[in-house]
Amino acid sequence: MTTAPWSRDQPTSDEDDARMPENEIDHWTPQAVEAIRSRYRAERDKRLRPEGNSQYQRAAGELADYADDPWSDGPRQRPPLTDEIDAAVIGAGFGGLLAGAHLRKAGLSSIRLIDTAGGVGGTWYWNRYPGVACDIESYIYLPLLEEVGGMPSRKYAPGAEVRRHAERIADHFDLNRDALLHTAVTGLKWDDERSRWRVSTDRGDDFLARYVVVSSGLFGTPKLPGLPGIDEFEGRAFHTSRWDYTYTGGSEDVPEYPGLADKRVAVIGTGATSVQVVPSIAPHCGELLVVQRTPSTVDTRDDSPTDPAWWKRTTRESGWQRRRRDNFITLITGGAADEDLVRDKWTDTAPVRGRKLLMSGKGGPDPAFAFEVADHQKMTEMRQRVADIVADPGTAAALQPWYRHLCKRPCFSDTYLQAFNRDNVRLIDTDGQGVERITARGVVVGGVEHPVDVLIFGTGFELGVDAAGRARKMIRGRDGITLHDYWADGMRTLHGATSRGFPNLFQLVTTQNTITVNYGHVLEERAEHLGAMVTEAEKRGALVEPTEQAQTAWVDTIRAKAADMEAFQAECTPGYFNEEGMPRKRNESYGGGALEFSELVRRWITDGGLDEVLSD
């Protein structure tokens, strides 16, 4: 499929998805930009649903089987614990492991990881589907890689390797010894007389902890579409995070799936997970139907094995990982660096192009317009890539994304789009409406039933205010007030880590601090911050609790520095970035960026800031 040259005087159409003009901004007219805006809004409006996040449902009740743990033999019998420990860490993903590591460095002895999973790793414990791998370079994503050791086999390490790295961290810092797995925390209550947290669980545990760290992670509980008939399907159905190798055959190490050879398989969802799953299973399916609400952007990946000689040169100097991470963040936020160390498509996003356009002097007088033009250029290239790869014109048109570049997390693959050229792969595009319902035999889209033998839900994880709200309701600080009620009028924290009235409670979250695409970097920085506070608290015999003044000052800083993203997100196609088209009114992220935030916290620590968070 080829496309016609872009006309500045007429809007684009489904049949004529055209290239933008040359990169100079003066080629653009308001009419040209408005034509694309109109197309984006039309595509967004197709997908807007009044129920927002409520269009999904939890894997609970009659659907609880979708959340069962297929990777372990289930919980072992044990008596409830009623002891006292130094620290309870809720969550055994990378956040919890890093918290445990830095608590160990702070001198704590009894550190208890608590997780509903049967092992450590968080997202990487659950995600073992075919093709799962990092989408951030593994050399900068894997936390504590320089300290714990190990050479990733590839630039983008496969999921099993990432999980094994998590297990190495647990072993290195002796975090398995006291871990409670297959266990969910049901309550956290501060005991003012004892200056301890009382921790209760669904296994009958009721123990005391001096410190509590909440790091339950972003991706763990699968979510399912709230579709009529989802519990009536008579074939095999599972979520990608609970992949059923007993049915499909194969394993993480054996990428062959004979159980699908004579089956009609439907994958529902076309986000980052499905971009990895689809090309991995396509050669093994009798027929594969890919059911799409919204196409992802799919840029080149260019994965490669790690060259041992290059690795030896790169890692010979101490601090190499932090330098590489900082270089990556500098470049993806449009900053200048002498060299691009990572050199992948993350440093070619639309905002990066916008900043380069401005710095070149060709951006014109309106920075917002320059950024939008850069975005349109990038997205046109993404649509053109689809047209160049996918042979069938109708399929190619349906796979072309029509929204601003960072409305959805960008995807990278050199095999996903190519999979649609296979005779046994068919795209079922729902034109933004999603699946209508599920029957005993298959899925209904636009009134047409598509019979299938296997349903695979690549619909992501519970990630929203509902999940956070449930967690906050179970945390009771001084005078029995819940964290949910304390934050009823807005979050109140110091650096997003601690809140007044909730002593010795730490949160490894992304609100009121910072976030970047390399979440492993964020978690490691947050854990270092936690470790510094606990180390000093241990020296002084103090509680960790911010003063009212310090907390208020930080909230004011967040309000002053936060970028106003509501208008941008409201224009975006619905997804988890914008709460399914209903973005939050208030941005709770530090607007100065990840590197600025990290430097701010380091200066705060060295300049005596810990006095603002430690009390007798």
UniProtKB/TrEMBL annotation:
Keywords: FAD, Flavoprotein, Monooxygenase, NADP, Oxidoreductase. The keyword Flavoprotein applies. GO terms for molecular function: oxidoreductase activity, acting on paired donors, with incorporation or reduction of molecular oxygen, NAD(P)H as one donor, and incorporation of one atom of oxygen. Residues 1-31 are annotated as: Disordered. Its cofactor is FAD. Residues 18-27 have a biased composition (Basic and acidic residues). Belongs to the FAD-binding monooxygenase family. This is Cation diffusion facilitator CzcD-associated flavoprotein CzcO.
